Amino acid sequence: MKLQNLHLRGVRGQMVVGFGVKGLGAATSFLFTWLLARTAGAAGVGAFGTSLTTVQMCVILALLGLDAILVRSVSVNLALENTGRARAAARHAIQVATGAGLALALIIVLFHWQIAVDLIGSPAIAQSLMVLSLVIPILVYCRLVSTVLRGVRWIGLSQFIDGPLTTSFGSLVLAIVWVRGMPADAVFASQLYLLGGVITAAVATFLYMRAVRSWQPREPLDESLLKPGFLILVANANNLFTDWFATVLLAATHGPVEAGLFRVGYQIAAILKLFSATSETILQPVFAVAYRQGDLPRIGRILRLTIIGLLLASAPLALAVLVAPEWIMRIFGKQFTSGAAAMQIMVLGQVFSLIFASSGSVLMMASRERLTVVLTTIAAIIGTILALLLIPPYGALGAAFAILGPLLFSRMASMVAVRRLGVRIF
User: Fold this and answer.
1) Measured in Å, how far apart are the chain's first and last C-alpha atoms?
2) How many Å separate Cα 29 from the centre of its chain?
3) Burial class (CB in 10 A: 0-12, 13-18, 19+), 422
4) 97-114, pLDDT tens digit by residue?
């Protein structure tokens, strides 16, 4: 892959493909949550959501930050036609992170009851947590394969195995269950998620073998992946910590029903979060190569176009949330309307955060891991304090404010840091 191939028109095309596939992922994820709400109620959504966010935290820990380091290493090495080093980096990252994922899954399987009761304070999630823990190494593996596919510019396929395929399978089966009037609960939803992960891993393996078959044999790496990866691990864990802690604290203090109301609102807001995350994953290789070349104006130009595109894409949902929040929540069932205000806060907060979208990815691709760790740590502290102060008295509404505060801080602080790198955005 030549450096000149990473022109802006190519990036636009990749963004269109990426958003198209992630749009499908957002639709299937929304459908999965809607079907679960219809078949298992708020309590089922709350138990499944609390288990899933705990598993997602474990995935972040198992990845050891190697997903971000790998996309930087693969994209730069492929741009320089060092395919042997790219192969070595991919294999090393997959072996280490998947091994860590297996270890975490084993721990949860052995101690799922103690974790659910003593650590999380929610016995209702014990069984679903045990089942979902088995998907940890699978999600880790698929995330890293997706990273490699991004490096070879298989954008649509890379995004397809990083979420949409798993939820598509679960949504299909849940739809059949709902139509036939069969019972379902959080444990059944967890089993579907696990089976979807297995199917996704099989597809990911096939795509990975095709992507690297023309690469040269492995060459010794001249860089450490784990050392900078550890800093990214801390930053990524900090980014997810507030969402996880807010969900867990809400389930422990107000029960799975209240957690279910929050998770449905969170799911709606996650549509916009998905827009931002998709743009970041697609642009990370571009940022890495452009920064390596010293082309800071190009980074600023891409950021401006990304911000405008994200705001335009988010406008319809933002307007609907402002005009008819209770109607949107009623789609999941009458009992969910009481979470309308919390949903509004989360959605509008995500819209505002899009103004500063992708700034964190620029810092990571510019090897500013230490600064990223500092900013995300401060954000996690802010979120923890807000959660402890607001969730016990205000429930889902307090949880919405608790995740909004650190989100806005980290986005704005990252944008300031990007400007100090010399990138001009506005």
Assistant:
1) 31
2) 12
3) exposed
4) 999 999 999 999 999 999
d(CA 287, CA 300): 10
Is the pTM value of this prediction over 0.90? no
Whole-angstrom distance, CA of residue 423 vs CA of residue 415: 10
What type of residue is 44? G
Note whether 141 and 132 are within 8 A (CB). Answer: no
Helix extents (H) in 223-338: 226-293, 296-323, 325-330
Instruction: Look at the chain and count its residues.
Output: 426
Side chain identity at residue 296, one-letter code: L
> What is the C-alpha separation between 187 and 193, in angstroms, rounded?
10
Residue in the structure block whose two tokens are 């806060």: 345
| HSE-up (13 A, CA, CB side) for residue 264 | 35
Q: What is the DSSP string of 261-279?
A: HHHHHHHHHHHHHHHHHHH
DSSP string, 94-144: HHHHHHHHHHHHHHHHHHHHHIIIIIS--GGGHHHHHHHHTTHHHHHHHHH
Q: Which of 194, 190, 198, 332 is nearest to 265 (CA)?
A: 332
Q: Which of 49-58, 121-130, 227-236, 392-401 has the lowest mean pLDDT?
A: 227-236
